[in-house]
Amino acid sequence: MEKHDLLIGIDLGTSRTSVVSSRGARVTFDSVVGFPRDVIGVRLLGSTYAVGDEAIDKNYLDLHYPLEDGVLKESGDHDQDTARKLLEYAIARAEPNEGERVCAIIGVPADASGVNQSRVLELVRDMVDVAMVTSEPFLVAFGLEKLINSIVIDVGAGTVDICGLKGGIPRSDDQTSITKAGDFIDGLLTKAISSRYPGAKLTKRLVKEIKEAHAFVGKPEQPVEVTLREGGKPVVVDITEEVRMACESIVPEILEYTEKLIAGFDPMDQPEALQNIILAGGGSKIAGLAQVVANGLSDYGDINVSCVKDVVYAGCDGALKLARELPPEYWSQIGATT
User: Fold this and answer.
1) Where exactly are the structural domains of the chain?
2) How would you write the pLDDT of the chain (338 residues) with one tens digit per residue?
3) 63 - beta bridge partners?
């Protein structure tokens, strides 16, 4: 690290983006850009757009999420402009100073295509001096010093990324991304609640808040009862089974792909890898998930599944740690770079 380098770690997520820097910045915000619907909205906002938490709860804005299934949308110029605004905001939150060389490591899904990685790098080319895009679960493992004989299961909104660490940079067959993740749970939960309580008014954000407050798999500790509105009036409803069903929907594929990664370890290393299965990402907070995963893998031997302590910053902390330890001139040996 040079004296005038500002190092930035970014976890670019479908739902939330988190940023840390070598100067102590530590922020997280919704991965959303809001645009006023008309001139009155522009007057109320005082701008032509708002990013992150500044856009939430303003019902005169149209909200656009530039990432889908963990990667940038590719449907048009507007999506590209929205993604650029999100990344500009992320870099700005690191508060770079004039004269600094800005060096950013950005975490993306485990098997994000080379095209998508290149699009991210192209968008940030004018915002930073050096940038690298690499696997988010690898960054989690790097931050935890779990680079050999471990498995990271990063449960995000757009993807579940599963990565086997074998003492080197993960290859394509060491990691995978599953698109049945947090957003998939939200969709199933919305349909299930609407089916049971057809008069209830649901929004995307309300369902997400219900999931984040009550998500569980396995046996519930207590009934899940929430207040919804029917015809404008509050009603208390029981959605225990709906929440359980939606959350458990992602478990079979997590187990399936984790089993494939286990089989890819040297037989002599498999027992150690089974003791180092790590859940990360917002979905790691689903109550009972670690135990359900451990139970589902029990045929392979003695299993230990743990959760990262900081689900918000584990990835970008790993990115910053990597940036501190490896000079930017060598980043191309790890991932795609500008």
Assistant:
1) 5-140+313-337, 182-248
2) 556 799 999 999 999 999 999 999 999 999 999 999 999 999 999 999 999 989 988 989 999 999 887 778 876 678 889 999 999 999 999 999 998 999 999 998 887 777 788 889 999 999 999 999 999 999 999 999 999 999 999 999 999 999 999 999 999 899 999 999 999 999 999 999 999 999 999 999 999 999 999 999 999 999 999 999 999 999 999 999 999 999 999 999 999 999 999 999 999 999 999 999 999 999 999 999 999 999 999 999 999 999 999 999 999 999 999 999 999 998 998 888 88
3) 34
The domain 182-248 is placed in CATH, from the list 3.30.420.40, 3.40.50.2020, 3.30.390.50, 3.40.109.10, at 3.30.420.40
- Contact between 16 and 282 (Cβ < 8 Å): yes
The single residue listed with the structure tokens 């990013």 is 51
Report the CATH fold assignment for 5-140+313-337: Nucleotidyltransferase; domain 5 (3.30.420)
What's the rounded Cα separation, in Å, for the pair 321 and 9?
A: 8
